[in-house]
Design brief:
With 320 residues, this protein is mainly α. It contains twelve helices and no strands.
Length: 320
């Protein structure tokens, strides 16, 4: 890579690093550490390919300044538990906004595949959901209880099982990124097809409203969190697949740390979704307005915390 190309590709990032050094007191240790890792990778590249260049001197000085800030003797404050959720996760989500878009598009496309395939092929539903589940649901519909699948077990055990299972799925979705982004993409595609087939099935039975209010009561948070975990997996896969100017190991380490933070950030969302599914979804007699309100509030939370707040936090850092 030519020096001018190297500079052109990274100059904006270095300018942002200068701003971060000026605002270091407002940033988290993890954010500073992540930036330092990227900066030292750039410095190592410059020292190898342009050892006598001014850009190498510039990067060395910048790295030294950030190093002094990063390794000050500070005790970790208990407030870190708060800043993790209020600062670190939103800022990490901003950095992963492209991966989040990719994850969403994969999932949306797979839902569409599930809808079209179920509509055009009567056997597709049984292939995806299985004969037992389809026959059980048809039997529940015949008895006038189409959503009886949600009240088949006691509330507390169901809440715990659903929550732990969803958290496990999210971490698996992240880890599959080790098999490149296609590993995570496969899991997203599989879950999206199941959702599309499920909703189309109830549409064909004339029960789309009841299906929507029951599934999305908890599914707004649950499906959103799966897509977000998918973004973590895509970030991990892209990290070692496209290392850029960094070593493959360094790039993998940075992307793994970023992805893990995203996945951990989804745990409370899965807990809340599990609580709703275990304790509320089963009560299909609840007023439609109440259930719709929970769905809308859940959607507003997802949009605020994972879209609006990351942009607000990032702009606040870069413009102050």
């Amino acid at each position: 890579m030519k020096e001018v190309t190297f500079i052109r590709q990274n100059i904006e990032k270095w300018k942002n690093t200068e701003k971060m050094i000026e605002q270091a007191e407002d940033l988290t240790p993890d954010q500073l550490a992540g930036t330092y890792i990227e900066l030292t990778a750039d410095l190592a590249f410059a020292q190898t390919h342009f050892p006598r260049s001014r850009i190498t001197i510039y990067l060395n000085n910048l790295s030294s300044a950030l190093h002094r800030i990063l390794y000050r003797n500070k005790r970790e404050k208990w407030s870190r538990l708060i800043t993790f959720w209020t600062k670190e996760v939103p800022l990490t989500m901003y950095d992963a906004r492209k991966e989040l878009l990719i994850s969403f598009l994969i999932f949306a496309a797979s839902v569409l595949v599930g809808v079209v395939s179920t509509h055009n092929d009567s056997n597709f539903l049984r292939l995806i959901l299985g004969d037992y589940y389809v026959d059980m649901t048809l039997n529940n519909i015949a008895k006038g209880e189409p959503m009886a699948v949600y009240n088949g077990n006691p509330e507390l055990p169901m809440f715990l099982y659903i929550t732990l299972n969803n958290i496990q799925v999210s971490f698996f979705c992240f880890v599959m990124g080790m098999f490149t982004s296609f590993g995570t993409g496969y899991l997203l595609f599989k879950n999206g097809i199941m959702l599309g087939a499920f909703q189309t099935f109830f549409f064909q039975q004339g029960l789309i409203k009841e299906s929507f209010l029951a599934v999305w009561l908890h599914g707004t948070l649950e499906i959103s969190a799966i897509i977000i975990a998918g973004a973590a997996g895509v970030a991990l896969g892209n990290g070692w697949l496209f290392p850029g100017t960094y070593s493959r190991l360094e790039s993998l380490r940075t992307s793994a740390k970023r992805g893990l933070k995203i996945v951990v950030g989804t745990v409370p969302v899965f807990i809340l979704a599990g609580f709703i599914e275990g304790f509320l979804t089963r009560h299909t007699h609840l007023p439609d307005l109440l259930r719709l309100s929970v769905i809308l509030l859940s959607l507003l939370f997802v949009l605020y915390y994972y879209i609006y707040l990351p942009n607000k936090k990032s702009h606040g850092i870069s413009k102050t």
